[in-house]
């Protein structure tokens, strides 16, 4: 018996939408049936490379009757309505993070998501990175004993434009959101958030009252602590490290090298070329694995795709971090 | 012209006192003139190895007229009185950290220290570690641009006995105190402290209301942030790492290997033997350099020995961290 | 103007033939037009995955008129005749190494190759590995000064079956041949070969009078020396390292890790999972780049594809090494 | 019962003699009783720092009756006569390498050494390096299975003056001699030597018909192979690496770092300061351990001090390498 490839409708053809289009086209289990973007030239360009019928109207995708799933990669403000439309149409959805910048809108959608039975997954791609996934599996297997401290370093190569900062929801909702989910990948039950933010280099962040550098400390119900260090820039390339500490040892994820070559001279030994520059390279495998896992979810197979609730939990943590950094208090959270 | 070696009186012959006795004996610029401990057998044992007249009475040392400096390595509770006695006797003192567990006692002594003109230095040995000192010098030289984030990982190999915990003043005053000083080595002007503590493995800490694991975030007046991760235990040996992040790069201090040998097999490649076990090995060079710097201070030469004020600042930060971790708020500090 | 993809005839569908089939299918500039193997089921299996008309007769491929190039991945003994046939048909050929086990047959073909003008390239894939290519470029750019010593470590994960050893032509012609070409990639003008072979673990090698371990030293006309260390097995995975030493420094190529994760415990720190297992993983990028370079050659564009003469030179070095190891003398070679 | 420190006569106060003087003075089991050098100012300078009666006449040392052992660190040409004198006087001797540049003189002395019962040890200090000693012990313990290949890289930071080259006996007898002994530390029973030498950068070597770069391959009776790579210069500092390869894995000795600090920037990541510059730093611990082991030998305790025979074997290998490199043949040796 042959399984037909899942027919995807891609909504949103910006940078991350193009990544997903490539993944859908490359995976033998998926095909690109529809490509939708109000900026129809973007949709057309994607369609030319990867196939799919072009439209500027998401409603047409849902009404077409020939999509098995949608991948929502449009601007954040559209996510809630598109998920709602997907549920109405009975079409499973994989939605990029964050669900929304406003937890009230997320909460309003929650009952429908829960009761509908339509699969909704969140695009926390890093869970599918082989290194992070391996560390989590090894922690779960007891290699270092009970997790006591998780350290996440997450720095982007360069700050986004001020215009992006203006609508981003702030560093915690826009950037740390990935790290909150990563912390919950290891320690789902976070109970307290303490965050310190500062603005030391980025004029755009300063202009819009945002931080360019932040340190967040999360406490889990178990007593374990997670630390997250963020910066909007990093001279050495995309800085994505993780360290899990337990009574029996430490598991570490190093930055991804771009070469096996090192140079030693009279002044510096064992120097290597800079790390991978950004997420497209660093998480290429993760995006493909994320899609495969979502296919399993759609097919009713056992799946570990991050859920709508995971997306909501990450946003709750971001809100708490924003409040903590602003009011200089630790903030209790209830993710249940 | 030959300079006579400085004649030291060593007060306190426990573990750290013995380290200092060995340093004093090994340094051609210093000799051990007096060895003092109420537990006179300890003093006698040190004297037999490294020389010096034995006494159980510190007053005798100060009255002798034949010491050029004292090294105070006795229990914390005795430090303030011994520094006061040193000032009265006009004898320069190098005192182990912390000055005291009670900031009020430290503040009470402060005017006398300031007005006396007698050199008083604090034993923040890690400032003299070649690796940390090198990173600080390179940051100061601008190698990574303006410091934006400082990360300190500091874990002891194993938790002390419950009886020690009981009188230690808590993890922040007893253990993190070193890391507070290290943070101030890079960022002297700390203005806010946020700390999270937890007790996940150590029965002694639990019994005495202490934490065995702590994460502290410090904010400097410049906006830079320092993160400190502590644990009372570490399977991999003494875990002492530091990372300085700036716009132009990252300077890192790795853990100290015990061997140049690595083993690669079918299951693990490039595995190396565990790190140095504890501070006697890890900071052997630092203790010797600390002593040399203090000798310069005593001789009126330019010296970077940490001051009484440095000791007070570290204690203020520890107090703030204790309050932050207990009350779940960020605590403003004024170190001026 | 659009360039049509090159239509390839693949001759030989064993392990390496399948690698090339995948590369040809994946590269937008190439398509698989014919798949040929006397073991026609193998050809059929490849055709089903990657396309192409199936035949068991190479003559049919050349006669078809619809191939732009052939990729010769058949057994070594067939290479010379197939290259000759390609030249006769005016079809450019990319041939796997070695050209033949008998230098006389290679020399007999040489004039035809030279006079025909038909592009013939040799499959020395390692030249296209990003790490080795980068080191060569950096040496050429003068980063370490004039090359004085080149060190190559090349060990396969496990010895081949005795039946393979029997017809392999011996370790130098079968395995070191790649390393001879790599040495010539840096030092084309080798003038002397000294080799030491030994048989310490492999019953198959012993049975067929072959070595399982060999060390070869090459002297270049410039005076520079290249060292090659080979073994037919390696517990740690495919061991492929290179080091270029010059007056100003050292460029090193490390083994390829399979993960960014390391584990530190009380007994071993910074241990990582084993290296990539074998050439399919280690040289995946190299095979693709090798194909792209051959496409340039076929199209008459500037190309660095290894030539028939490179293939002949590597075989001359292998013959010299075999003689050196057997007769215990250094052997002079003339590669001009 | 207290053991009296061994009273040493030091003969030769050049660079290596001064190293030994410091070791003798620092070790509580040894004292410097006599310091001898025909260049009596050198002897005097050593005596002033480390004690001992000064003389320019080695005979006086042996006749004094108050030395328990001699350390021979004089020019190579004097070693044989001084060992003979030590044997005659019944005084144990630790002699620097090589014994002599002329194997005939060594052989002539051999019967006396063997029959005398007077302990004679050779200064192959590297056997006592903790890293090399650890690898040997771990190989012996079977961690990688039966040793199949040993790789030694040994490069000095800078070529010696031409005048030194002139009387050095050539690179194999002067420099590789250490590596021959290291090879025999792992594989005592070497049966064949193949060496390739070249002169690519050093005018002094060229002037005196010596090589500045050499690669030597040794075959052991077991079939195992040792490779030695030498250069008279190394931009990255003292290059002293070793790798032991067996069926179950690889043990490696890395170069000795001078700092725990690494720097990552936009152009180079994880760059570290250069390695230790030369043998005084790199082998400081080894020299002390070598002395302690010789003390055990003198006291009749079990000792692993390298023997006169070890010194002779290394010279035989050096002679064979010189012949191999000159005559372009593999040279059979009999070390029994």
Automatic annotation (TrEMBL), chains A, B, C, D:
Residues 132-251 form the GFO/IDH/MocA-like oxidoreductase domain. GO terms for molecular function: inositol 2-dehydrogenase (NAD+) activity; nucleotide binding. Keywords: NAD, Oxidoreductase. InterPro entries: Gfo/Idh/MocA-like_OxRdtase_N, GFO_IDH_MocA-like_dom, Myo_inos_IolG, NAD(P)-bd_dom_sf. SUPFAM superfamilies: Glyceraldehyde-3-phosphate dehydrogenase-like, C-terminal domain, NAD(P)-binding Rossmann-fold domains. Residues 6-124 form the Gfo/Idh/MocA-like oxidoreductase N-terminal domain. Its EC number is 1.1.1.18. It is an enzyme of class 1 (oxidoreductase). Belongs to the Gfo/Idh/MocA family. This is Inositol 2-dehydrogenase. It comes from Labedella phragmitis. The gene is iolG.
């Amino acid at each position: 018996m042959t399984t037909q490839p899942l027919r995807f409708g891609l909504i949103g053809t910006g940078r991350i939408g193009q990544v997903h289009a490539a993944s859908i086209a490359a995976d033998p289990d998926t095909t690109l049936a529809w490509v939708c973007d109000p900026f129809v030239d973007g949709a057309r360009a994607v369609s030319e490379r990867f196939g799919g019928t072009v439209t500027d109207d998401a409603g047409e995708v849902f009404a077409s009757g020939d999509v098995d799933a949608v991948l929502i990669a449009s601007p954040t403000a559209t996510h809630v309505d598109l998920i709602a439309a997907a549920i109405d149409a009975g079409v499973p959805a994989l939605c990029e993070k964050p669900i929304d910048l406003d937890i009230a809108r997320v909460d309003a959608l929650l009952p429908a998501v829960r009761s509908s039975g339509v699969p909704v997954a969140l695009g926390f791609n890093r869970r599918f990175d082989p290194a992070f996934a391996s560390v989590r599996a090894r922690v779960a297997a007891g290699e270092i004993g009970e997790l006591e401290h998780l350290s996440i370093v997450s720095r982007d190569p360069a700050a986004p434009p001020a215009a992006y900062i203006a609508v981003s929801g702030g560093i915690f909702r826009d950037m740390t959101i990935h790290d909150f989910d990563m912390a919950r990948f290891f320690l789902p039950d976070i109970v307290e958030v303490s965050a310190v933010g500062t603005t030391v280099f980025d004029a755009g962040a300063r202009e819009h009252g945002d931080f360019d550098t932040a340190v967040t400390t999360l406490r889990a119900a178990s007593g374990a602590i997670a630390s997250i260090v963020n910066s909007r820039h990093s001279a050495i390339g995309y800085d994505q490290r993780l360290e899990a500490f337990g009574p029996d040892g430490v598991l570490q994820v190093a930055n991804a090298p771009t070469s096996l070559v090192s140079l030693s001279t009279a002044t510096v030994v064992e120097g290597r070329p800079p790390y991978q520059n950004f997420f497209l390279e660093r998480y290429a495998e993760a995006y493909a694995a994320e899609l495969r896992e979502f296919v399993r979810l759609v097919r009713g197979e056992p799946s570990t795709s991050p859920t709508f609730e995971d997306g909501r939990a990450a946003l709750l943590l971001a809100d708490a971090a924003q409040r903590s950094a602003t009011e200089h208090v630790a903030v209790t959270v209830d993710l249940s």
